[in-house]
Amino acid sequence: MARRIADFPCMFNMGPSANRDETDLTAKLETVLQESGFDQDIRRLNYLTWIQFNLEKLRGQEHKESLQWNEKAMKLSSGNDLVSLANRIYLSKYIGKEDESERCLHELENRRSIPDFRFLLADAKAQQAYCYARIGDPNNQDLAIDLYIQALSVKKDYRWNYGLGLACMRSMHFHMIKYRFKYNRKERVQKGAAALFEAIRVAPDNDLRGQGYMNLALLQSYSRRFAAKDLTDSECRIIFNYLSVKELIHKALELGPNDYKVLADCGRAIADDDKEEAKGLFMRSNAIQRNTKACHQLGFLSSDVNQRLALWLDALKLSHYGDKAIIRGIQKILNERARDNPINKCFHQHFHEVGTAKKDVLILVQDQNDQVDRVYQILTACFGLTATKVVIQNSQSWKTEVNQHHVVIIILPRLLNRF
After folding, report:
1. Verdict on whether the full-model pTM lies above 0.85
2. 95 FRET partner, CA 20 to 30 A, in 103, 143, 222, 289?
3. What is the pLDDT along the chain (419 residues), one digit of tens a residue?
């Protein structure tokens, strides 16, 4: 079966670089579920099928929800989507429904005779590119870019141009390019800018055009910061149609003045050159909808350590505890506090050891308040603890819980300020 289905791109024949870590998968699942219109987008339904399947596999659960997402994708496409059909083949095979898997495989192979098959195949490649791009890391961004280029060689689609530009922009970020330098960065910037300008030209609504200009601003900002050796100033001006970062941001804000994502990303693009303007954009973004990116960046701009910690904890909570960069920032503050105080050092060392040993923790608290929530977030996210929080009401309310956990931490009011 593997050989017969290898030529049909889907979520289950992506390469080994596709991340299958439970924490990351959970964060990705929750992110998609919070996006508007996800249940009317075949790409995201197929992506959800893959995420849910891997989570169910890691947790030893039945594959009910992944099958439900797959069913929705097939229904939405009226059975004409190669990816959802190929996903069904893998799902059916895995759960032991051999007859259904073989029937779907015959149906998929028969699609080759359809006159528009090459367009269906291009769409399948674009869907796989979309998933690689969302999974992240340099390898997956490279794979996404290659697949988008293959799809666009068959058919023009503004969503694919936008996806190509987005993947090129992400691959130019410092956290991406520090790992490898195998690609030509000047060529990558040219491809990304050309794709985004084309997406803006044909996009059907202002929201997408605004996001396009915002990503052009980020791409130019990254190229000037991280690829200055590969691009002269005059080459950069030509690539971006003689529009500066500020001019691109102005266009983005004209088209998406109330889009919190556009505001936050425009703030990121301008932060190195104008911190006050960036701060204002992050605050406007948070005023519309409190979000990870704005809280995270406002934390960087804050000179007050306590305020920075509070903002980063907000960002961590909003990111479903999946953002490692935020966790590293919080850990740095905690480590500095630990060095300054021997009692803090003892606390932090103990929690780190418990987290490293993968022990389950029961946290007993005398009251439920914001400060307790903050401590809980730090212990679970930054020390890697799997923790259950219980408010102490009487001895009987928590005795049973204690017997089920390896470590019990009792947080008294006088200890809260240690964090």
Report:
1. no
2. 143
3. 667 777 788 888 887 656 567 778 887 888 888 788 888 999 999 999 999 999 999 989 999 999 999 999 999 998 789 999 999 999 999 999 999 999 999 999 999 898 999 999 999 999 999 999 998 777 888 899 999 999 999 999 999 999 999 999 998 876 666 555 567 888 999 999 999 999 999 999 898 999 999 999 999 998 888 777 788 889 999 999 999 999 999 999 999 888 898 999 999 889 888 999 999 999 999 999 998 889 989 998 988 887 888 888 788 777 755 566 777 777 777 667 666 666 556 656 656 665 555 566 666 666 666 666 666 677 666 666 666 666 655 555 555 555 555 555 555 444 444 44
